[in-house]
Design goal:
single chain; alpha/beta; four-stranded mixed sheet; 12 helices; 24 strands; 30% helix; globular; EPSP_synthase; Enolpyruvate_Tfrase_sf; amino-acid biosynthesis; transferase; Enolpyruvate_Tfrase_dom
């Protein structure tokens, strides 16, 4: 599906979907338990992959008709060997957290996914599992899926780089809690995307699991049980909110956009509020009510380090193209290893729309003062975050912008274009 977006003013109230990061972790945590309820989950292509994985390991996931509740019968910390290959589709988070879970099973698990996922790095996690005494191989011997993983592991100490993916740390902490000896993680390099590990620690604590940060990295004692007697409520997703907040800042007029469900949590992507404030946006956050209001503003370029907030790069890049002056996004090499190379994708598509962009391996600079956005056909790169950020650019580009492959928003924000339409955006969906 493609979407045509014509320059528009937007305004009103909207609610971002529940957090994808919290939903993934809560589903698997419930799977590790004897059983738990997850309320207000994000049901999307990615999180359905995690649900399928829990079922492959012997659990059962029952979805309410309105998708507001998941009743999960877990596998009690002892996953069964799946009867078939686990298809993680396009979900890198699923692949990594499930890979460590597979190392607990007394047998071999095969994991794969689509072409994009099969190009993403898994080598450091496979090496960590081998350090713990498990079997972990890439079928093509290139550190990428398809993967073959076997156990059971008993725990131990692992040494792993921190600058490739924080999801490796999440995977080892979640699995380590139910090993005999627990897992000690020693970081070889500085941890990137650290707030995502903070989310993991928060969810683990909510399921009764003790894990902690240490001077060398992280530690989780073994022999623990995942338990959650009350329903676990998933908070709103700040990664998804970023597009709505950006829409308000660049096209919100005097009325502005009010985003609901913005309650404080460990999500690093809440930094989008600080970024917008630094750029001069008229923005306010009522934390108690969980509402953020942002109005159209004259923005100025800033420098933003996305070492801990890689998913914000596409949003910030679009804001930079609209802002006056130069916006430098630094410490972003790891953003190249997402669903697509998001640094290159944003540079390419913003240039197609008329932006002036300079790209290096670790930086993306948008020269806002030299940029005039004009409608064009841009590629979504089969990446939900690229699609949504380019849609926001379409709100301010002269004429009409066509975003190709727009249906990929289903990965994290099903109904994104419905929300944008309800806010007043002029858009039309059509099949390719």
């Amino acid at each position: 599906m493609d979407v045509d977006i014509t320059r528009s003013r937007v305004g009103g109230r909207a609610r971002a979907p529940p957090s994808k990061s919290y939903t993934h972790r809560a589903i698997l945590a419930a799977g590790y338990s004897d059983g738990a309820v997850v309320s207000d989950p994000l049901v999307s292509a990615d999180t359905r992959a995690t649900m399928r994985s829990v079922e492959a390991f012997g659990g059962q996931v029952d979805r309410a008709e309105d998708d507001r509740r998941l009743d999960i019968d877990g596998f009690g910390g002892t996953p069964s060997v799946p009867a078939d290959v686990i298809d993680c589709a396009n979900s890198g988070t699923t692949t990594r957290i499930v890979t460590a879970c597979a190392a607990l099973a007394d047998g071999l698990t095969v994991l794969t996914g689509d072409a994009s996922l099969r190009s993403r790095p898994q080598g450091p996690l496979l090496d960590a599992i081998r350090q713990l005494g498990g079997r972990a191989e890439s079928t093509r011997a290139n550190g990428q899926a398809p993967l073959v993983v076997g156990g059971p592991i008993d725990g131990g100490t692992v040494s792993i780089p921190g600058d490739v993916s924080s999801q490796y740390i999440t995977a080892l902490l979640m699995a380590g809690a139910v090993t005999v000896d627990g897992v000690e993680i020693v970081l070889e390099t500085e941890l990137k995307s650290a707030p995502y590990v903070d989310i993991t620690l928060e969810v683990l604590a909510d399921f009764g699991i003790n894990a902690e940060e240490t001077e060398a990295g992280y530690r989780v004692p073994g022999g623990q049980r995942y338990e959650r007697p009350d329903p676990y409520a998933v908070p709103g997703d700040f990664s998804s909110m970023s597009y709505l907040l950006a829409a308000g800042a660049v096209a919100g007029g005097d009325e502005g956009v009010v985003v609901e469900g913005a309650r404080p949590s460990a999500q690093g992507d809440s930094a989008i509020v600080d970024v917008l404030e630094q750029m001069g946006a008229d923005i306010s956050w009522d934390r108690e009510a969980g509402e953020i209001t942002v109005r159209e503003s004259a923005l100025s370029g800033v420098e933003v380090d996305v070492g801990d907030t890689p998913d914000l790069l596409p949003t910030i890049a679009v804001l930079g193209a609209v802002a006056d002056g130069e916006t430098r996004i630094v410490n972003c090499e790891h953003v190249r290893y997402k669903e697509t190379d998001r640094v290159r994708a944003m540079a390419t598509e913003l240039e197609t729309l008329g932006a002036s962009v300079t790209e290096t391996q670790d930086t993306l600079t948008i020269h806002g003062g030299e940029s005039t956005l004009t409608g064009a056909s841009v590629a979504g790169h089969d990446d939900h975050r690229i699609v949504m950020s380019l849609a926001i650019a379409g709100l301010v580009a002269e004429g009409t912008t066509t975003v190709e492959g727009a249906d990929h928003v289903d990965v994290s924000f099903p109904g994104f274009f419905d929300v944008l339409y309800d806010l007043g955006a002029e858009l039309e969906e059509h099949e390719r």
